[in-house]
Amino acid sequence: MSSELIEKIQRLKQDRNAVILAHNYQLGDVQDIADFVGDSLGLSVQASQTEAEVIVFCGVHFMAETAAILSPEKTVLLPDKNAGCPMADMVTAEDLAKLKEKHPDALVVCYVNSPADVKALSDYCCTSSNAVPLVGSLPEDRKIIFVPDKYLGQFVIDNTGRDIVLWPGYCPTHARISAEDIAAARQLHPEALVMAHPECSEQVRACSDQMLSTGQMLKFAQNSDIRQFIIATETGIIHTLKKQNPDKEFFGVSDKAICPNMKRITLEKILWSLEDMQYKITVPDDIRQRAQRALDRMLEVLPT
Ligand code: 13P
Ligand code: SF4
After folding, report:
1. Hey, what CATH topology would domain 2-84+262-283 get?
2. Fewest Cβ atoms closer than 10 Å to its Cβ: which of 61, 140, 247, 253?
3. Distance (Å, rounded) from C-alpha 116 to C-alpha 93?
4. 88-170: CATH superfamily
């Protein structure tokens, strides 16, 4: 059944001149049929450079919205219209406008996990791959507002020493990972290196070996001589880690680290999305142009 489904998707993909982009947290069979699998930064770059007319975005809403901002002439489809990101929804444009009034001289950096109208009110956008170098490149005498992830924001403060006003947002999936989970995994796999995502809490960060975006985790595992890894992020990435490193072992730190929104996208929904050309993600032009400015500035800063 699945191979029939995959054939139909491939055929329709050609007919529609579509490209399938998938985030590293997607279900394994979705990652396997994608033209490109990556982290938020890699997917943004792909979306801005593709020559396809249609982008089927296997991820969550803010990612498809980012693709629509960067490639306004393309049709961007999200196969499940309810695949949102609770962290992105923790800050609104109204919230940010009020915060800017309190700190009128601050530069605003928003994490890509944010709505388009928040990006439109920001000076810079960043992902977990480039948040530290991006903030580090800003003029030293300027205060910075960082929204919405307080944990990524604190990680940036600790790595840049900058004066940053944080917003109390967080990722509910990464918040489920605890320092106790790491300790228990270390007991089971004492030789393993712990890779954690900067969306994790400071307590988790304190007992991890490497803080990396999902794309950086994939590179690190491939380039390292270490053979065992404990993974403190959404479990979907373990699929690609195993596929790319058949001689190494990867242990998820917690089976609670599953993002239900990322898991909404299935092969069936991808097929229906291409058949019915839905759900189209668009951004009003005035918001889009201002949001694109923040994203373009991000794409000028190379990931570490
Ligand atoms: P990255 O893949 O950019 O590390 O981001 C993780 C994430 O939470 C996306 O929602
Ligand atoms: Fe949002 Fe967290 Fe899911 Fe990423 S893992 S999409 S930050 S809820």
Report:
1. Rossmann fold (3.40.50)
2. 247
3. 9
4. NadA-like (3.40.50.10800)
